[in-house]
Here is the input.
Amino acid sequence: MVTGRFRFAVLTLMVMWSGAAIAQDAPSAAPGNQEALEKQVEELRSLVAQLSKRVESLEGRPTAKGASAEIAPESTTVIAGVGGQPVAQTIQSTSGAPPSGEHGATDFLRGTTLNLMLDGYYGYNFNSPVGRVNLLRAYDVSSNSFSLNQATVVLERAPDVSVGRRFGARVDLQYGQATETVQGSASNELRPQTYRPVFQAYGTYIAPVGSGLTVDFGKWASSLGVEGNYNKDQINYSRSYWFDFLPFYHMGFRTSYNLTQKVNVAYWIVNGAQQTEDFNGFKSQAFIFTLKPISTVSWNVNYYFGQEQPDVVPVLNPEFPAGPTQPGLPTTPVVPTPNGREHIFDTYVAWNATPKLTLVAEGDYVINRVFSNSAPAHVSGGAAYARYQLTPKFAVAGRAEYLSDRGGLFSGATQALKETTVTTEYKFGDGFLTRLEWRRDFSNQAFFRTQTPGELKKDQNTLELGMIWWWGQKQGSW
Here is the structure.
């Protein structure tokens, strides 16, 4: 089947050939042939008129699904002259532009970013532990195994007050080992299978109050602790004890407001820590302060409190349709009902000492009671980070931390935990980097597993190679 574009080209060539022939013959035409010449010119004009109508009909014809919507070039000039005088003007095509007053289909995605990340690693634990399991790790949990840490899709349409858009939304879908860490435990989610792939999902509205009051509703990553979820934005490949211990995410409302250009305050009211569905009737709260005294320093001071013990028994093997409409919803209370509070004091400061050197320090104190009159469990300590960009592609980083776990709130045993990490990073380009990391975990108690069941050591040493790919329109940290 001959396409409109091809027919257009054929007719154009015919017109150009006819015009050239007439122009060539015109000087030698005898007076007796003037009438024949004028007749040819009229026929040529008629042909051009038919060509114009044909182009108009092609431009207005709808295209089949999956076919190109382009019929003709944006502008094609057809000129056939007699003695240098044009007999047809430029034919304009508007097939590439929407009709006046209408928006193109791409406007639907204007201001929206689609971003993807793939994060994998190979690690080796020199203790050769039974089951090839690295203890006290948040994400790099496997030894002597090629592992998929994260496969992530992030879809975001952020608010932009400068163009009159005060609302937006974001959805982060996550798969892999990291998903099982942050959302796979029935100890904090009544129905983890329901929400497991959805790491974040929230909508935003910026109310026209003062400098702009930002209100979010949904599920979002916690800002307690300096480290975050996405490896491409972190200093080291493995995560600290504090990232593993502090909340990963929350579900509820949060608001933030810039008091000045240097001071931001935020307030949260949420179900709790790692509770997409609340497992008790108490709503946890947080007060977040972000200070930027100078352009190179950012300081966060955070206080979070709530009840972090469930008052119902999870249904691990739900039967359907017996009981509630949806399987897994709990109906058995915990007796006596825990009513103790958890308090988290968290602060961290980041300083870009030079364009190449970044220094970070974090301090934390956590106290928790199962019942209001029970003995508390305490977790305290902190971490220090340093990163130096040796060349545009190569960087080195280090981390040292201490965690006092009195009562076993973090590790299940009373002990003093320490770890040191050295990380080298090579960035092949914007969108692909690798990290080679040596880490040593050690304790004042025999806690870490070995290749012999029941035999424990006071330390474990690991070597890991992490590889991270990412692409999409979102700039900066995710």
Q: What stands out?
A: Residues 110 and 157 are 8 Å apart (CA to CA). The helical segments are 4-25, 34-60, 177-183, 192-195, 241-245. Residues 25-29, 61-101 have pLDDT under 50 and may be disordered. The longest helix spans residues 34-60.
